[in-house]
Amino acid sequence: MSGARRVAVIGAGSWGTALAGLLAGKEELDVVLWSFEQDVARSVEEEHTNPYLADVTLPSALRATSDMAAAVTDADVIVSVSPSQFVGRVMARAAPYVREDALIVSASKGIELDSLRRMDEVLRDLLPPVVMARFSVISGPSFAAEVARSAPTAVVVASHDEGAARSVQDLFQTDYFRVYSNEDVVGVELAGAIKNVMALAAGVSAGLGYGHNTMAALITRGLAEMTRLGVAMGARKETFSGLAGMGDLVLTCTGSLSRNRTVGFRLGQGETLGEILSDMAAVAEGVKTAESLHDLAARHDVEMPIAEQVYRIVHEQKAPSAALRDLMMRDPKPEEWA
């Protein structure tokens, strides 16, 4: 692939693998997937499969490695797709090999627990300003398994640099993966993180046996909470009506492939969080984000009652039925949006 544009995808979970497979399907790109686990890298490289994305055959052109230097050195584009709580330590390993003209794309959805930083803030402390000036984040309603099977999907890329956003659009755009652009990095990142917490709530509701009325209320009021915090943190209200907000919220709250909804469902059914996580190979981002979001809402003095009850269920072992009752019995209020 002499002269091909080099892309390093950092993180070989289901989403990172799906994106790497999409990009490796383009002849003009030379794509390498970095995995923390050597056996996963070996499986991708030799068998064109990944246990985190079962029953999907990956393009033979996709390379894989567990050697960070080999993955990142000379890469034109670096896609960061590690679980949000690990992005800092993983990208700290990558940082020495990042070229100053490299394009950085974040595809992780979460808020760092201890620092309450979004992913762009995490990376800003690791990478030079000249690199972060062209930082982009890609998000939206996109289950990895469906993207890997070429299901028509639409997402959004946000960047403060219009040229960088266009480059990412061109990079990822295919006949089944449509990419829109946006300037609101804060809004797109927050939406991608908060929707996972709302998906936990949606799963709890389903696990308790409630139906469409309850789900519609959770999604609508969850969107209001998401918007309220986003605006308080400098995001644009309109972002939350788009693909990163409403689009991803609907997907993760209603789709059976949602890991966060699945965790919530099992909590609603009476299982403990420890029991649930012990037999899950993949990461449900909403579990940690529920704690981050609880602290972030307090920092900005924003009322987020659904997120608050999810935090109490997940981290304080509150009974899901009691949490739902407390939500329903709050003082009556006007329907207000941020």
Provide an overview of this structure:
It is built from 16 helices and eight strands. Helix 9 packs parallel to helix 12. It folds into two domains: 179 residues, 3-Layer(aba) Sandwich (Rossmann fold); 140 residues, N-(1-d-carboxylethyl)-l-norvaline Dehydrogenase, domain 2 (Orthogonal Bundle), CATH 1.10.1040.10. It is 50% helix and 12% strand. The protein has an eight-stranded mixed beta sheet with strand order 3-2-1-4-5-6-7-8, sandwiched between helices. It is of the alpha/beta class and 338 residues long.
Please describe the topology of this protein.
Blueprint: E1 5-10, H1 14-24, E2 29-34, H2 38-47, E3 63-65, H3 68-72, E4 77-80, H4 87-94, E5 103-106, H5 119-124, H6 129-132, E6 136-139, H7 144-148, E7 153-159, H8 162-172, E8 177-182, H9 185-207, H10 212-232, H11 243-254, H12 259-268, H13 273-278, H14 285-299, H15 305-316, H16 320-328
Parallel strand pairs: 1-2, 1-4, 2-3, 4-5, 5-6, 7-8
Antiparallel strand pairs: 6-7
What would CATH call the homologous superfamily of the largest domain? NAD(P)-binding Rossmann-like Domain
The radius of gyration over CA amounts to 19 Å
Mean pLDDT comes to 96
Indicate the CATH architecture of the largest domain: 3-Layer(aba) Sandwich
Alpha-carbon distance between the two ends: 50 Å
Q: Identify the CATH class of the largest domain.
A: Alpha Beta
DSSP summary, beta strand count: 8
Parts with pLDDT < 50 across at least 5 consecutive residues? none
What count of domains describes the coordinates?
2
